[in-house]
Amino acid sequence: MSQISTHIGTQYENGQFTKGAKAAFSSLPNSINNGTTISGIDLPVMLSDNVDAPKKTVLILGQDPLRDPHDLMLPSGYNAATEVVFGLPYAVQFGKKYKGVKLYHLMFEDIIRASKSVYLTDAYKFWIKVGRKTKSVKQLAAQLLQNEIDFVKPNSILLWGKAANAMFTKFHLRTNANIVGMPHPSGAANGAWRKTLSKAYGAGTKATFNKKNKYFVDNILPQL
Asked: Which residues contact 114 (CB under 8 A, 6 or more apart)?
């Protein structure tokens, strides 16, 4: 983990950013947020049933490490204006019992059962309320992602949702990996899911948990 984090310039040690991380985040707005919104950073993570065995790697690219204060167990005295909440994508550190991530984790398990490793990361490595979609922030995010792709060298890249697809295509990121796209598993993307599922299983198919997972197993997994 530290090797990957060092390479993309977001290493965090002993409670402080390293020089690489400070440089990377120097282009962010001076006012990170308004003091009431939680800021967050998700560190990339590799999932595998055997890390010592060489395997094909599927890089799953999500959107950003959204922080919802209702979903977090924040310590007493937490200061939203000055502190950042670190975590892992899709709360993998808590397992699939964590609120709202069961479908994500089932998809990870499906890929791992197919004898592949799963590398999780976001198009935007940080969540900030103010200025997070400025040109400089997008360029920084694209640079970090390109460095990450070059380092991990995935065999396939799975784009989850519009933000991941836009990041990948707009900045013409370089890779020899097989690119596969699908709606984001989040319930917020149910509109896109209804269109996708209706094409696959017939008009009027609802975006249910089971139908999403079935579509993933039937149509996405074989492409990875």
From this structure: 221, 224
pLDDT (tens digit, 9 = 90+) per residue, 179-199?
999 999 988 899 999 999 999
Q: Which of 161, 185, 146, 193 is nearest to 9 (CA)?
A: 146
- How many domains does the chain fold into? 1
Residue 25 within a domain: yes
Q: Please report whether residue 210 resides in a domain.
A: no
Domain contains 50? yes
CATH code at 7? 3.40.470
Angle at 191 between CA 157 and CA 198, to 5 degrees: 85
Which residue range forms the structural domain that includes residue 20? 2-91+118-185
Per run of 10 residues, the mean pLDDT along the chain (length 224 residues) is 31 38 42 53 83 83 71 61 73 68 90 92 74 72 90 95 88 94 92 95 94 96 96
Helices and strands (H and E) in the chain: how many: 7, 10
Radius of gyration of the chain (CA): 18
Quickly count: other Cβ atoms within 10 Å of residue 100's Cβ: 13
pLDDT in tens, 123-147: 887 766 655 567 777 888 888 899 9
Give me the residues paired with residue 120 across strands. Answer: 45, 60
In a domain, 191, yes or no: no
